[in-house]
Amino acid sequence: MGSLTLPKLLVVDLTKDNLKQPDTSAWSSTCDAIRAALENHGCFIALYDGISSTVEESVFQAAEELFNLPTETKIKNIVEKPYHGYVGQIPFVPLHEGLGIDYATELEGVQSFTDIMWPDGNPSFRETCITFSRAVAKLDHMVIRMLFESYGVGKQYADSHIDSTTYLLRYLKYRAPEVDEATMAFPCHTDKSFITILHQNQVSGLEIKTRNEEWISVEFPPSSFVVMAGDACKAWSNNRVLSPNHKVTLLLDKKGKETRYTIALFSFLSKKVQVPEEFVDDQHPLKFKPFEHVDLLNFYATETGRRSQNILEDFCGV
User: pLDDT tens digits, residue range 171-220?
Assistant: First the structure.
């Protein structure tokens, strides 16, 4: 694989009318392009018009409002599942802070988070979160249908997969480094989700490692979302899809330092993650045993899981 040259990240324009309707040639070719992108790069850029400019503006205002709360308030964002709640004040990643809303497409999930952060209520924050989460979840549904269809298993599995999906919305902040600080804002890792969808403000920093070990700096065009496969998607696909290593590095910009805000929606399955039988044959022996998605998170939270160089093999390898 070392000498293979991969193209830059695929950009898929999902705003086109001919992609609103399955069973067209444009739909089919886009399904295959998305699958190839997820196999080679582990991600692609989606142009998506499901978010109005008003919602986009308000979701970044909400991020600022949230991170401006006192630390003693933010640390009350405690979730039983690992890495779902507040992450911050960590000496080796001083530039990063994150908060999470589990069940972000459901009113109760967003309401309970809002009540903890703002005991007197904050209806505009709540409305922004739920509107944004539901709109981005629709993008996730579209990507799942396209990926599954390209593999020829859409009719069998897409609906039950979507029905079993829950969403974690994470607000991520990366403050600009001082002159004498390291520019690494978040270390190299893979996501434990099935799919991650990222939306950022105008400050770049995301870098992705492709199948051929090349690092790519990701530029987000306006109205774009980065759609990235997580470890659960890699397991489900019997190792066909790449769950890419990625990191955040901030440049020391002489033009005035800006904070990078990213809003991320992570999908998780409430049913077992399992390789479809259609993906297993003599050429593709079964690589991974079925597992509960939350158990992968729990394993990652152990010292063994954090040190693992191949988490799926160590956690559920055959």
Answer: 999 998 887 788 888 889 999 999 999 999 988 899 999 998 999 999 88
Q: Answer yes or no: is pLDDT of 231 > 70.
A: yes
A 10 A CB-CB count for 247 gives: 16
Nearest-angstrom CA–CA distance, 151 and 255: 46
Q: pTM score, two decimals?
A: 0.95
**Can you give the CATH number for the domain in which 187 is found?**
2.60.120.330
| Residues near 25 by beta carbon (within 8 Å), at least 6 away in sequence | none
pLDDT of residue 88: 86
Q: Has residue 188 been placed in a domain?
A: yes
**Closest-CA residue to 318 (of 268, 278, 284):** 284
The residues near 165 (Cβ < 8 Å, ≥ 6 apart) are: 137, 140, 144, 194, 267, 268, 269, 270
Count CB neighbours of 154 within 10 A: 18
* Residues 144/161, Cβ–Cβ less than 8 Å: yes
Please tell me the total count of domains within the chain: 1
CB within 8 Å of 219: residues ≥ 6 apart: 204
Pairing state of beta strands 206-209 and 215-217?
antiparallel
Tell me how far apart the 2 most distant CA atoms of the chain are, in Å: 60
Examine residue 4 and state whether it is found in any structural domain, yes or no: no
Task: Please name the residue that has the structure tokens 């992968």.
Answer: 296
Task: Tell whether 84 is covered by a domain.
Answer: yes
Domain span at residue 56 reads 11-277
User: Is 301 inside a domain boundary?
Assistant: no
pLDDT tens sequence across 71-122: 999 999 988 888 888 888 888 888 999 999 999 999 999 999 999 999 999 9
Q: List Cβ neighbours of 99 (8 Å cut-off, separation of 6 or more).
A: 66, 67, 74, 77, 85, 86, 87, 170, 171
Q: If you ran DSSP here, which 8-state letter would residue 218 be given?
A: P
> What's the CA gap between 132 and 180, in Å, rounded?
37
| Structural tokens at position 284 | 């593709």
